[in-house]
Every structure is written in C-alpha cells, then in structure tokens.
Amino acid sequence: MARKKKKSTFQNIENFMVVLMALITLFGVVASVLYYLTAQ
Predict the structure, then answer these.
(1) What is the distance between the alpha carbons of residues 40 and 35, in angstroms, rounded to a whole number?
(2) Of 16, 34, 36, the residue nearest 24 (C-alpha)
(3) Is 40 helix (H, G, I), strand (E, B) or coil?
(4) Mean pLDDT, 10 residues at a time, the chain of 40 residues
(5) How many helices (H) and strands (E) does the chain have?
(6) Distance CA 33, CA 38 (A)
(7) CA distance 1 to 20
(8) How far is Cα 26 from Cα 29, in angstroms, rounded to an integer?
(9) pTM of the full structure
(10) Cα–Cα distances in Å, from 22 out to 3, 14, 18, 32, 39?
C-alpha cells in the first residue's frame, strides 16, 4: 500500500513538473507575441 502511495506521489510530482514546463513555455510564447504586437 505504502509502495503504491509512494509511486503515486512520484507520479504526481512528475505530472506537476510537466504542467509547470508547459505553463512556462506557454507564458514565453504569449509574452513574445505581446512584445511583438506592442513593438509594431
């Protein structure tokens, strides 16, 4: 039971890291687009 819980926790951390990277990438793209539009 504890082993399964530990694996689940690791999976949650891994998923969190993936989501965090996706958000950072998305934020970077949005920031670049806004900068490009405002620079015109």
Answers:
(1) 9
(2) 16
(3) coil
(4) 71 94 98 95
(5) 1, 0
(6) 9
(7) 28
(8) 5
(9) 0.61
(10) 29, 12, 6, 15, 25
